Amino acid sequence: MTVVDGVRLVSNSEVQTFKDCPRKWWLAWYRGLKLRRRAVTSAASTGTRIHVALAALYSPNGATADALRMLGYAQRADQREFDTQLSAAQFSEHGESETSRLNEEYDKLLKAFDLEYAMIEGYVEWLAETGADQNLEVISVEQRVEAEFCNEETASKREWPNPVKLIAKLDARVRNALTGAVKFIDHKSVGSLHDPVLGLNQQMRHYHVIDDLLTEPGQPRAEGALYNMLRKVKRTRASKPPYYARVPIDHNRYELINYTAQLIGIIDRLNDATQLINDRPEMHQAVVPPRPSRDCTWKCEFFKICRMFDDGSRVEAAIEEHYVAGDPLAYYDDKEESGESN
User: Which of 14, 76, 247, 311 is the most buried (most CB within 10 A)?
Assistant: First the structure.
């Protein structure tokens, strides 16, 4: 659960998961389940390795590390994890079939590593050619931030069981040395640089609301986001540029006010769902039903067991074999590096 020391911590990830699929929220956030063996060949793992490499280029003290070297560290760590999984599979109950599956996955992993290297190598060259970061001063990188959204008094008036804090982990926070404008950088590995719904993305609004709550009167407030877009494609003769883009999206006061209202409504629903399932766990079918889509196949770590909840299968046995309970907020507690705090 996401109540720590009596305070409900609400992240954009939890909010969007609940909106996308209540069942996934129930499994990942309410029950805290995660895969027993992390899928290092997944799109999420590629995104994580890309983030590790990009974080090396943005440092509050002005120093930068070799992004390709940092990518190599991340890849080798995942290679070792994959090798461990392969060794364990040979002695498992389904050893032969599992080993065969992992051998096929190994080719996929090597292709992912190759693509990631090409993406980061090209991005470093793009920065040198365009000077996209020339006027940016890094304030913080991979920084955990949290802000009080409501205290005990306001929570009581809203009939919420706990005070609430909003929580986030920012890829980077930067200031334009020429204009003084403060913005968030969010790194995205994408299939296309053209995203018609980017302005509707609520992740940056979540960050922006937190920044507003933390910023003292008279201090510069963040204006919005710089989306750092890297296409998941190699730069070959067959491919067509551009491969990288820096897309600014600002948010006005109306957007932040309305997102705050939406957050209040979502927290109402999260509290209601939590209370109903606490009281009657068997009510999950009515309270947090699935919302299937084509994204499930690559986006959801529970895709393989989702149908089992509905067809009478021994789904809890499958959960015991393939998943473990953990802290859904562990990502936000990773080591952070920051220059200044708001």
Answer: 14
Q: Which residue has the tokens 């204006």?
A: 223
Of 70, 47, 48, nearest in space to 58 by CA: 70
Please identify, among 251, 268, 302, the residue that sits at the C-terminal boundary of a domain: 251
Polymer length of the chain: 342
- Owner of token pair 């590629």: 46
Structure-block tokens of residue 165: 């804090």
pLDDT digits (tens, 9 = 90+) for 257-278: 999 999 999 999 999 999 999 9
Count how many domains the chain has. 3
Domain final residue pick, 251, 269, 298:
251
Condensed to tens digits (0 to 9), the pLDDT of residues 6-21 reads: 999 999 999 999 999 9
Claim: this prediction has a pTM higher than 0.85: yes
CA–CA separation, 53 vs 39, rounded Å?
A: 19
Tokens of 155: 């929570």
SS3 content of the chain, % helix, strand, coil (to 5): 50, 20, 30
